Structures are given as structure tokens and as C-alpha cells.
Amino acid sequence: MIHTVLFDLDGTLLPMDQKVFVHAYFCGLGEKLLPYGFDPKELEVGLWKAVGAEVQNDGRCTNETAFWRVFTGIFGEQVVKLKPVLEDYYKNEFQNVAKACGFTPKAKELVDFVKAKGYTPVLATNPVFPRIATESRIRWAGLDPKDFALYTTYENSCFCKPNPKYYLEILEKLGCQPSECMMVGNDVDEDMVAETLGMKVFLLSDCLINRSQKDILLFPNGSFAALHQLLDTISSIS
Questions:
Q1: CB atoms within 10 A of CB 207
Q2: Best CATH choice for the domain 4-16+102-237 from the list 3.40.50.1000, 2.40.160.20, 3.40.50.720, 3.40.1080.10
Q3: Beta-strand runs (E) in 34-152
């Protein structure tokens, strides 16, 4: 019986073209750090390497530690002093990046529907961002962090998508079995991998990402309305 629904954020509850979002994010951060001697291009390369370390994290540390270990290795230990500057960026300039994203009231309608049906909503967004940035993106989607029993950030996670251990880490925190959960996302490789653990999945096709060109008919898929109908049917059976 399903009692927990995991939602991806970027491209799922928060509509976006990922390339447009990333470009706006790097441009804003580059401008913020330019006075501190960072070349925007070198910064972008360094950030990607640090994010790559998060994605490759083997669970022996948090993603936050993995990120800063590589970032300081590239730019020197002195960059740790810039943490307050980065926090200020996420509080202020980062909010402009919302303009690079879309918005749909269907996101809040869906999460409210899930709660009304007695499911526990969880935000399973790839935890490469700090908490402050994740909470902002939740609000851009018209939601509140309190809407979710758990939301993953680089502070509280030791794995990333598409590593199945990312999902196992969530299940351990929630005390859930895979068979009790459904993962909803727009990325075939990163989100549908949850099915290999025994979770039910739903591929939201509005902002579909399918890098490996898999047959999406392998997964239940469709619009917000189709997901509503599926969850309604499951709850009625339960």
C-alpha cells in the first residue's frame, strides 16, 4: 500500500528548462563573486567539478562536505570565508533566478491533494544545493517547506541521483519500505531509477528529460491530471 509520495522539484513541481535555469544561476553567482577575484568562467568550471563530487559521493560524508572539499581544493582554503557571501547571494540575488523558471498552480494543487488523501509528501530533489537555496525554489513553486515531511539538501544527504542509495537514504530516514512509496519526477534517468528498488514511479511529462532516450512507455507517465487520477485510484483501493 502506498502511503508516501516523493516529488522531484526542478522540472516537476517547479517547471523549468534546466539549461536556462543553470545559465541564470551561474551568471548571478558570477556577478556576486566577481569583486572577490573570481573569473566567471573559472568559477563555473570549479562549481561543476564540486557538484560532480556531490554526484559521485559514496556516502562517507555529506554532500556539503564533498562539495567544499573539492571547491577549496580548486580555489584555496580562503574561499571558506566566502560562505557568508554565498548565503547572502541565496537570500537576495538568487531570487532573481526565479524569472528563469516557470510556474504552475497545479504543483500546490497536487501536493494539497496528496495530503488530503492521507499520503505523506516528501521532496526528493537532487541534494546538490544548500538548504537556503532549496527552500527558495520550493517557494517559487508556490509551496512551503513545511508542506513536506522531508526535503533533501546538501547538508542532510550523503548521496545524489541517479544513485539508488539516494532513495534508500530517504527511506531509512522515513522508516519506509520501497513498496510503500511512489516517486514522481520528470527525469527518466534520475527519477525513474527508484523503480529498481521496488518503488512505484510516475514520469511527469510536462518538462521531460530523457538523456538516454529510453522508451517512456516503460513507466506510468503523463500530466498532472493523469497523476491525480492515478493517486486517487490507489487511495480508493487502499
A1: 18
A2: 3.40.50.1000
A3: 120-123
Report how far apart, in Å, the C-alpha atoms of 211 and of each of 14, 23, 194 are.
19, 19, 17
Residue-wise pLDDT for 158-195, tens only, equals 999 999 999 999 999 999 999 999 999 999 999 999 99
- Bridge partners of 202, per DSSP, are 184
**Taking the model in full, what pTM does it have?**
0.96
Cell for 226?
A: 493523469
Q: How far apart are CA 48 and CA 99, in angstroms?
A: 22
50/54 Cα distance (integer angstroms): 7
24 in the Ramachandran plot: left (φ > 0), alpha (ψ -120 to 50) or beta?
A: alpha
User: For residues 214, 220, 226 and 227, what is the CA-based torsion angle, rounded to 10 degrees?
Assistant: -110
Q: Which amino acid is at 101?
A: C
Q: Is 16 exposed, middle or buried (0-12, 13-18, 19+ CB in 10 A)?
A: buried
- Report whether 234 contacts 113 (CB < 8 A): no
DSSP 3-state of 153: coil
Q: Where are the alpha helices (DSSP H) in 76-174?
A: 83-91, 106-116, 131-140, 164-174
Q: Is the pLDDT of residue 236 over 70?
A: no
Cα Rg of the chain (Å, integer): 18
